[in-house]
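Structure in, sequence out. Go:
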């Protein structure tokens, strides 16, 4: 699988967890041609994308984003510290350092969402894969090891309970598909790094 495609899918999945989808995002996920050309051909991702054939209602999808991720009374906890009952401050400092060391700009390190929010972690991994796609051989070996370690030490530890909660609560097709897209990206990172 081309690294650029792996990075692109990671950015797309992370964005869904970070901000409400705009019209362009909803249009792309609703497009059968885009779904057919999704860069991750694994069975989990393909099954998730098939859910989108049910159609996407923009208003209901955005309303459910607010319920699941935003200002609803019981949003899904997307944080590693919350899921694993760890110190948010300590983990946040560790991740902010990793983000800086990995080349994210300060505006991407300091955001409204917590550093240990699943979307932020997936965004960082997509960024690292994109850097790897442009790296020389010497840099690539170290970067590949860093990506594998980050996956193991962060999203792999808590993404499954997050996805299980989406599975249980999501109603709209895009949010029903999201757990499979997250799992597909994390699984493909693991398969690629091993």
């Amino acid at each position: 699988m081309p690294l650029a495609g792996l990075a692109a899918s990671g950015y797309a999945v992370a964005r869904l967890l970070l901000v409400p989808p705009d019209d362009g995002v909803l249009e792309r996920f609703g497009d059968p041609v885009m779904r057919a050309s999704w860069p991750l051909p694994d069975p989990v991702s393909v099954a998730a994308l098939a859910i989108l054939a049910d159609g996407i209602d923009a208003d209901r999808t955005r309303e459910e984003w607010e319920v699941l991720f935003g200002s609803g009374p019981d949003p899904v906890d997307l944080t590693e510290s919350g899921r694993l009952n760890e110190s948010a401050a300590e983990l946040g400092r560790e991740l902010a350092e990793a983000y800086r060391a990995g080349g994210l700009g300060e505006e991407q390190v300091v955001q409204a969402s917590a550093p240990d929010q699943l979307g932020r972690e997936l965004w960082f991994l997509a960024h690292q894969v994109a850097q790897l796609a442009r790296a020389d051989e010497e840099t690539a070996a170290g970067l590949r090891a860093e990506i594998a370690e980050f996956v193991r030490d962060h999203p792999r530890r808590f993404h499954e309970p997050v996805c299980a909660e989406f599975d249980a609560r999501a109603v709209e097709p895009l949010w029903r598909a999201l757990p499979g897209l997250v799992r597909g990206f994390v699984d493909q990172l693991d398969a690629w790094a091993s």
